[in-house]
C-alpha cells in the first residue's frame, strides 16, 4: 500500500462528478431542475448525438447575476439553502450545489445569463479546471446553457455510454418525469434539429389532462379520472387514475410524485398494489400518476444525488392514507362506468311481447353504405340473394365466424306449441337487437376496410339464417 496523499483538484472533482453526472440524461435533469427553480415558463432543450456531442437549454427564468456567474460553477455553491435546517422547509428541486460544478468537471460548459434588471447578458466558459472570467455577451432575458463534449476529460466513463438513440431515450424519459411533476412551463424538446415533443403548461393539476396526453399519449389520458383529497396525515393527495381495465403488464405507467419530484419508493408502490388488488388480475399493474404533498419536515430527500429516493418519518402513516384514498376513488370510477352502461341500456328499443306468436319478421335494412362483394374476389361463382332480398355475387370467401354460426345440435324433444313459442321469442329478441345494432351502433363504426365490414355483417346476418 502506497503513502496517503491528497488527490489533485481536477481528479477529485471528476470523481465527485461521477456520482451526479453519469450520462446525458443526468445533465438534462440538473439543468432542467435549475430552470424550474428559476421560475421559467418557456424552456427549450436541444440534443445532438444523444447529448454526447452537445446539449443546449434555453429558458426565460430569473437568470444569474453577473457577480454570481463565476461562483455558480464552484462546488457547494447554491442559492437554494443557507444552512442544514433549511432542508426542513425545502421547496426547490435543487439544493446540493453540485450540478453545474460537476458538469464543468467532465465537459465544456458555457453559461450565458441576463436577469431582467441587468442591462446586458454576461457569459462564462469552463474547460476542465480552466475557468474563464465572465464577460459581457449578447443574450435575451433568462439563461442559456451549452454543454459540449461530455466526458471528454474522462474517456473511461465515455466508453460506457450507449448508442445515441439509447441516450436520447433516457433523456426523453427524464423530461417526461420532470414535466409530469411540474406543470408551470411550456417545453419544446428537439433531437438533432427535429422537434420530438411539445408539452403545454397547465394552470392546475385538475386541468393538466392535455399536458399528460402530450407526455404519455392519448391512449393513456383518455382513460384517466381525476381525484383529490386532503387528509390529516398528508397535506394533499391528488391523482389521475386510469380505469382498472386499463392495466399493464409492467409498471411503466405508474408515477409517484412527491413535492414536485418523481420518486421511487417500494412502500408506496406496494400500497398502490394493495389498493387495486380487488379489481385487478394478479401480474397486472395499474396506470396512474399519484401526486403527494407532504410537510418537508417529515421527509428527507438528501439520500441520493438523483433525489429519486426519500426517507419518511412515518412510512406506514403515508401508505395507509394512500390505500384509503385510492380505494375510495376506484369505487367512484367503477360506479361512473356502471352508470354510463345503465344509461346506454335504457336507450335500447323496448320490445312488446304481446301476441308474440303472430309477430312477423322485422324488415331490417343494411346501413347506407352498400358492400360490394366483388371487391373481395375477382371471380364470383354464382348470384344469389340474402335473407333480406339483397342481390350479391357469392365468392369463395369464408367467414372466420362460420364455426360460431354453424347449426347447433338439436334441442331435446318438447311439445310443438312450446317449441314454437321459444323460437318466436328468440327470433323476436334477436331481430330487435340486430335492428338496434344496424340503426344505432354500426353507423358510428369507423371501419374503412371492406373485408372487416363484410366479416362483421356476415356474422350478424348468419344468425337470422338459423
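Q: What amino acid sequence fits the structure above?
A:
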Amino acid at each position: 500500500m502506497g503513502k496517503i496523499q491528497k488527490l489533485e483538484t481536477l481528479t477529485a472533482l471528476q470523481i465527485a462528478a461521477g456520482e451526479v453526472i453519469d450520462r446525458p440524461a443526468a445533465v438534462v435533469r440538473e439543468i432542467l431542475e435549475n430552470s424550474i427553480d428559476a421560475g421559467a415558463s418557456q424552456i427549450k432543450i436541444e440534443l445532438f448525438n444523444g447529448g454526447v456531442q452537445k446539449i443546449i437549454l434555453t429558458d426565460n427564468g430569473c437568470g444569474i447575476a453577473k457577480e454570481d456567474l463565476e461562483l455558480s460553477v464552484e462546488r457547494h455553491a447554491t442559492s437554494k439553502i443557507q444552512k442544514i435546517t433549511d432542508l426542513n422547509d425545502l421547496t426547490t428541486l435543487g439544493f446540493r450545489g453540485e450540478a453545474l460544478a460537476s458538469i464543468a468537471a467532465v465537459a465544456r460548459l458555457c453559461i450565458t445569463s441576463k436577469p431582467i434588471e441587468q442591462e446586458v447578458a454576461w457569459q462564462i466558459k469552463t474547460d476542465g479546471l480552466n475557468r474563464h472570467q465572465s464577460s459581457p455577451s449578447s443574450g435575451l432575458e433568462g439563461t442559456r446553457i451549452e454543454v459540449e463534449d461530455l466526458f471528454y476529460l474522462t474517456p473511461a466513463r465515455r466508453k460506457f455510454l450507449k448508442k445515441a438513440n439509447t441516450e436520447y431515450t433516457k433523456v426523453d424519459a427524464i423530461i417526461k418525469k420532470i414535466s409530469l411533476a411540474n406543470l408551470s412551463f411550456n417545453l419544446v424538446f428537439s433531437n438533432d434539429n427535429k422537434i420530438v415533443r411539445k408539452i403545454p403548461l397547465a394552470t392546475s393539476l385538475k386541468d393538466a389532462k392535455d399536458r399528460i396526453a402530450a407526455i404519455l399519449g392519448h391512449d393513456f389520458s383518455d382513460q384517466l379520472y381525476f381525484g383529490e383529497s386532503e387528509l390529516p396525515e398528508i397535506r394533499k393527495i391528488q391523482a389521475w387514475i386510469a380505469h382498472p381495465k386499463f392495466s399493464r403488464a409492467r409498471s411503466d405507467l405508474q408515477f409517484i410524485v412527491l413535492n414536485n419530484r418523481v420518486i421511487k419508493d417500494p412502500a408506496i408502490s406496494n400500497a398502490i398494489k394493495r389498493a387495486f388488488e380487488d379489481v385487478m388480475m394478479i401480474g397486472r399493474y395499474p396506470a396512474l400518476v399519484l401526486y403527494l404533498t407532504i410537510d418537508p419536515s417529515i421527509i428527507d430527500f438528501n439520500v441520493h444525488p438523483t433525489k429519486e429516493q426519500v426517507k419518511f418519518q412515518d412510512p406506514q402513516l403515508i401508505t395507509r392514507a394512500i390505500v384509503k384514498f385510492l380505494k375510495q376513488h376506484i369505487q367512484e370510477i367503477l360506479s361512473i362506468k356502471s352508470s354510463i352502461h345503465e344509461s346506454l341500456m335504457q336507450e335500447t328499443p323496448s320490445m312488446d311481447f304481446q301476441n308474440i306468436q303472430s309477430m312477423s319478421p322485422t324488415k331490417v335494412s343494411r346501413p347506407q353504405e352498400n358492400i360490394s362483394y366483388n371487391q373481395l374476389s375477382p371471380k364470383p361463382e354464382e348470384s344469389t340473394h340474402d335473407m333480406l332480398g339483397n342481390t350479391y355475387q357469392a365468392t369463395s370467401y369464408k367467414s372466420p365466424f362460420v364455426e360460431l354460426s354453424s347449426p347447433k345440435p338439436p334441442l331435446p324433444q318438447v311439445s310443438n306449441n312450446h317449441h314454437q313459442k321459444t323460437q318466436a321469442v328468440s327470433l323476436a329478441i334477436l331481430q330487435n337487437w340486430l335492428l338496434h345494432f344496424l340503426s344505432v351502433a354500426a353507423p358510428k363504426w369507423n371501419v374503412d376496410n371492406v373485408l372487416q365490414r363484410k366479416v362483421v355483417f356476415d356474422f350478424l346476418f348468419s344468425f337470422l339464417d338459423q
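Q: And what stands out in the fold?
A: The domain at 210-346 is CATH 3.30.230.10 (Ribosomal Protein S5; domain 2).
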